Amino acid sequence: MIKRSVAWLCVLANLLLASPAMAKTVECLVKPSYDIVVSQSSVQLANPQTNVIIMPNGAVMLNGQSVKTKPAIQKEAKQFQAYLREQLPLFENRAYWQLNDVRVAFETAIREKLGNKSELLKHLNNLHAQLTDLLHKSIQTKDGVTYFYYQPFNNIKKDGEDIGEKVFYKILGDSITSFNLFKNYSAIKKIAKQEWKEQKVILKSFDEHVCELISDIDNQYNHLMIGLN
Predict the structure, then answer these.
(1) Is 115 exposed, middle or buried (0-12, 13-18, 19+ CB in 10 A)?
(2) What phi and psi values does residue 23 have, to the nearest 5 degrees?
(3) pLDDT (tens digit, 9 = 90+) per residue, 85-122?
(4) pTM assigned to the model
(5) How far apart are the first and last CA of the chain?
(6) Residues 6+ apart with CB under 8 A from 34
(7) DSSP line for 182-198
(8) 56/80 Cα distance (integer angstroms)
(9) Which of 196, 224, 198 minimizes the C-alpha distance to 77?
(10) Domain ranges of the chain
């Protein structure tokens, strides 16, 4: 249960939790294979093999070459880039909000059970900072340009669980050193049980939303590529 409470912050994007209960959730089968850059002038989807640039009017460049498209394909490309312009910033904002919302919920519970001077608060803030940085490596907006990186995104669950596990052992070590192991265990057990009950529905819904979004993006990308080839 201690590990479950720490793992509660290992949310994102497919933002799952490192806990037995969340392990029952069906993992999203779609794994994007391209980075996305959304700027005012264009939307770019690129990996080592393919580089697609879509202009706001639907004009397309493929691997550095302008592509003459049929009106239906140009319309599809125009709608796709507009969809990415709208959805990626929304996803980024919701992911950061969700991560912070879980942190606040745990912080409140820790203060109520262990007091404002609990060392667990320091570990919680450290965990939140590391997971925020992990999310930042997957999606970020800088100077009006949104960047999505597929490799960090596809690994975010595993990397988040690794971070949570390290923090868990740090908490355990500090508890033993300060002779507060059983006190902390009892309090964290209660916190984990309460927060799991209150948050699991919200987090499951968010996980499903992320999977639906990524699946939709991937379907549109693959359909467009068929039309361009």
Answers:
(1) exposed
(2) -65, -20
(3) 999 999 999 888 888 887 888 788 778 777 776 677 77
(4) 0.79
(5) 52
(6) 45, 46, 47, 50, 150, 221
(7) HHHHHHHHHHHHHHHHH
(8) 10
(9) 224
(10) 2-228
